[in-house]
Amino acid sequence: MASASHGPQQLKDRVIQSRVHRERDRFITSIPERQVLALASSHRDATPCEFFAQPKRGSYNICYFVQFPDEVKWVVRVPLAPCLAFGARSKLESEVATMQLVASKTTIPIPRLIAYALNDGPEPLSSFLILEFVEGRKLDLQKLIELPQEQQTNLYTSLADIYIQLRRLEFPSIGCLVSGSDGIQVKKKTISLDTNMQELEGLQPSKIQASYYSADGYLTSAREYVAMLLEIADNAFTKGRGSVPDEKKGSDALYHLHLFHTFAQEWIDPSLDQGPFVMVHGDLEPYNLVVNENMSIVSVLDWEWSRVVPRQFFTPPLWLDVNDTTKLAFKYLYGFYLEKFDRLLVIVRTREIERFGEPLLADEWTAAKHNSGFLVANALENWTDMDWFAHRYVNRQWFPNSDKEELAARVKAFMEDPAHRALITAKLDEGRAYQAAVERLKKNDAESLFVTIKRILSFPTLSNITWWGGMALFFAGTSFIGNRIVQFHIRRQK
């Protein structure tokens, strides 16, 4: 089976991941911090400012925290261009348009947008966002389980208010928002975390998207959207270099992708083919939610992956119980999740009736939660979840009396198709070459770290570190300590 895709997503191809991360690190070191301060000052009548916290790097942005003499605090957020397959401009123009729409049409708490630039120039600050700094803390998933009843109610009420308002933002087509002379409209193909990573890996999901979208950038069929996502998943399996580690796992994964195809086709509601199409945040995870001491959400961050999707893809937070959607594919764990979800659902229904006079979303989610419908939508937009869901859920639904031997017989019969055998054989040859490249990468990384530690030990300020201490850092590899030491070395080299 493919690797599980829970938490902040990572590139699947480790060789490309290493290259992208090296380019990302070089990009970050090329950002002159004095220019960040000057940039912020230029948007407040040249008032000087200073940093009040260390920069924080996320997966796709680096944030600088500045404060003015009157204690006004801003965040200067710079997109990490090497990590963005479609460029910083494309990401920011959709994010800005979405934030402007959300700010004007809802009361969802988001940071105030102060200034921005949309360019793909060579300078690292050619694209940026300047946002107000929001006091609070990121939602801690580990503490979520132990929340007192009152705090859980506050959190669920905040979530309900966000979702019921987003659900009522409807659009005529599927895609991403763009702001222009004719207002804010859907005018671009969808870009998600998954498609961004696939594009970086050279799998070119954008070519598949182009075959489904019209020349002027429109897609108005939920059925076609699902067909597109299934084709993108097939393409990722076929072209991904590490998708088949061995013959047994490869055959099993291919069979379960086929099983998922069939299940997903039955999951589609034909009455919703032409809409409604609704807005989703695209990454509404705990790390993008800022809460206060009462656990009320005070800000929703990072709208960069927001998009308009068919209604069946408007799903609730899947992290209320276990933050691993591949585990939720087990029916009993999905049942535990539904216990938490049903508490949220009661609040959604109450808040909707109070605010809008009808339980639109509550009724839709009540129907959609059955037969693990939320997980189908999630897997379609996160392709490595497909074979996990098919293996752990669809198998047990369609073949309730099946055991390992019966499943193996089904996979064997499926692999009698010459096309299936040929694909797995080709993927095995490709996989061996990929694993050799990964081993070379590990060796090169180890040698580079060894050289870096030797240089660090030559610094007078580190003369108290013994050779054996340096070797301990070497064997730490890419651990937290090793990374921190390497970052210290990079700063000294600047």
Written description of the protein model:
It contains 18 helices and 13 strands. By secondary structure, it is of the alpha+beta class. The chain has two domains: about 15-415, no CATH class; about 420-494, no CATH class. Helix 8 (about 220-240) packs antiparallel against helix 9 (about 245-265). The longest helix has about 40 residues, at about 420-455. The model is unreliable at about 1-10 and about 475-494 (pLDDT under 50).
Give a summary of the structure in a few sentences.
It contains 18 helices and 13 strands. By secondary structure, the protein is α+β, with helices and mostly antiparallel strands. The strands form 4 sheets. The protein has a 5-stranded antiparallel β-sheet with strand order 1-2-3-5-4, sandwiched between helices. Strands 6-11-12 form a 3-stranded antiparallel β-sheet, with helices on one face.
